[in-house]
Amino acid sequence: MAHPIRFDDDDPLLRRLRGLALAFPEAQEKVAHGRPTFFTNKVFAYYGGSVKGDHGSPLLAHALLFLPDADERAALLDDDRVHVPAYLGPSGWLALDLAGAEPDWDEVRELLDASYRRTAPRTLVARLDA
Q1: pLDDT, tens digit, 9 for 90 and up, residues 42-51
Q2: pTM of this structure
Q3: CB within 8 Å of 20: residues ≥ 6 apart
Q4: How confident is the model at residue 117 (pLDDT cuts 50, 70, 90)?
Q5: Right CATH for 12-129 from 3.90.1150.30, 3.40.190.10, 3.60.21.10, 3.50.50.60
Q6: InterPro entries in the record, alphabetically (predicted)?
Q7: CA–CA separation, 120 and 43 (whole Å)
Q8: Separation CA 117–CA 6 (nearest Å)
Q9: Which of 14, 93, 72 is nearest to 48 (CA)?
Q10: Cα 78 to Cα 6: distance, rounded to the nearest angstrom
Q11: CA gap 24, 117 in Å, rounded
């Protein structure tokens, strides 16, 4: 059974996030489990769906799931906007709530950058640095 679509293409947060994520070398988007997913060879970001079993929450629909650098994880968890998401949390992923105040888009890009660097092939990371 296919997952229902759990996002709105007209969502301004998604549009802004999509622009940032797809600016990375060879980044692509697909829908997985009803959510926008950004990847190269591996996924580097998800939009929404971060609490186990609570797939319909409007608040959770506006979360960025990312894979941070291990040395930044503890500091990120001190931020009230960040939590350990269901399913992906045990693998080191974190979620940033984008629904509160206007997101700091420079911070969002930095989080995407760190996650991209952890998942993308070396050749793409080299292109990013060039």
Answers
A1: 999 999 866 6
A2: 0.91
A3: 105, 108, 109, 112
A4: very high
A5: 3.90.1150.30
A6: YjbR-like_sf, YjbR/MT2646/Rv2570-like
A7: 8
A8: 27
A9: 14
A10: 28
A11: 10
